[in-house]
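Sequence in, structure out. Go.
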Amino acid sequence: MAKIKITQIKSVIDRNERQKRTIAALGLRKINQSVEVEANDAIIGMIRAVNHLVAVEKI
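Output:
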């Protein structure tokens, strides 16, 4: 599978608990932090749920 880089670009303050937990499950803790993960169906689904809070780029 391809790797993708996920960067948190917005805060999780005033977001619902589900979005906060999704961001945490992706491995993100603060704004401008990035993680590189394998692009599988579970990760892509999590990205769709919080796409307004993250930026995604293919590696």
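Check: DSSP finds two helices and three strands in the chain. The radius of gyration is 11 Å.
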